[in-house]
Each structure stands twice: as structure tokens, then as C-alpha cells.
Task: inverse folding
């Protein structure tokens, strides 16, 4: 079971059975923007081409989120928090530290952490906070693949027929006269008084 508190500018995440809390320090705004951009692109399976110092995978993004930056503003790649996550915690406990650390570093801040834990943490919490992040940024959560993928038509496996008139004449000509509407059977409609 995990819990959190905000103490000053830091986020403290406590895991039951682990003595010391994980202290997540805030990252500067521009680094938070980069982290969010990397996270969303990787989650949407979009290439990171053209992004400076792009991470190789999501694990690196979450590692950066939990460790933060040094005094020069560079990402800490092998910090105390990540060593503790990978050496002391189970995978689900680690998820309850890494994902809140990311949402804390994003534009959501404490709201993202609250939503993560309110939804029960884990996958459910991650989905809830990600939905909030995409809505905050004005990104549709319904878009799940690149537009170029959606623009490619999928060929049909079934035979298709054309919709042009059959060679025997129009459909009206093939209908028996008694099934045609008044005026379509070749007779003038009667006038009613």
C-alpha cells in the first residue's frame, strides 16, 4: 500500500514496509515539459525524432521523473530514488512510486498524484491521471494511433459488387406492375373527388 504527502515543494511517497519515504523534488518547468512530451510520444508509439536528448524508452523517462535534475539542470540518470525503486520494491510498488513521480513533474502536479491514488494506483490510477493530463493539454484521449495509420484503407477480404444499374434494366423495370407505387406502373393516378 502506498500513500503520499506534499511537504513544502517536495512529494513524499511512502510504501508500507519501507522505512524511508521516496522524496520527489520538483523539476524546472522546461524539464517538466520535455518529460511530458517524451512520455506522451512514447505512450502513443510516436517517434522521438528531432527531440533533443530523447530517451530510448519509457523506463528512462520514469527514471528521470523519480530522480529529477542536478544543479545544472541535467537529468539524474542513476539517483538514489531509482536505485531504491529497483532494488527494494516489487514491480507494483515501484509503479506506485514511478508514475506519481511523473505526474508530479507534469503540468498536473499534485492533482495528478491525487487522481492516481484516488483511482487505486496501478494501472487504473495511471489511466485516470493520463486522461486528466491529456484533457488538460487539450489532447483527445480517443486518438490511439497516428493519423497516417488511420488514413491507410484496409482492403476488404470479401467480394464486392458494383452499385450501377443491372444489365437487365433498372430495378423499377424489373418489379412486377402490382408492386410498383401509383404512377410508376405506367398508368395515370386517378383523381379523387
Result:
Amino acid at each position: 500500500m502506498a500513500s503520499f504527502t506534499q511537504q513544502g515543494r517536495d512529494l513524499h511517497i511512502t510504501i508500507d514496509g519501507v522505512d524511508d519515504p521516496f522524496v520527489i523534488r520538483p523539476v524546472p518547468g522546461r524539464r517538466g515539459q520535455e518529460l511530458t512530451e517524451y512520455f506522451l510520444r512514447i505512450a502513443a508509439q510516436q517517434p522521438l525524432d528531432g527531440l533533443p536528448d530523447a530517451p530510448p524508452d519509457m523506463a528512462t523517462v520514469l527514471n528521470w521523473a523519480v530522480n529529477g535534475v542536478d544543479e545544472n539542470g541535467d537529468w539524474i540518470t542513476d539517483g538514489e530514488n531509482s536505485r531504491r525503486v529497483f532494488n527494494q520494491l516489487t514491480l507494483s510498488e515501484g509503479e506506485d512510486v514511478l508514475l506519481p513521480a511523473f505526474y508530479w513533474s507534469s503540468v498536473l502536479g499534485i492533482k495528478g498524484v491525487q487522481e492516481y491514488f484516488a483511482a487505486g494506483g496501478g494501472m487504473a490510477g495511471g489511466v485516470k491521471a493520463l486522461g486528466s493530463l491529456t484533457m488538460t493539454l487539450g489532447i483527445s484521449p480517443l486518438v490511439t494511433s497516428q493519423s497516417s495509420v488511420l488514413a491507410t484503407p484496409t482492403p476488404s477480404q470479401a467480394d464486392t459488387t458494383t452499385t450501377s444499374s443491372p444489365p437487365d434494366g433498372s430495378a423499377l423495370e424489373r418489379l412486377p406492375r402490382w408492386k410498383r407505387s401509383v404512377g410508376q406502373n405506367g398508368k395515370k393516378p386517378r383523381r379523387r373527388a
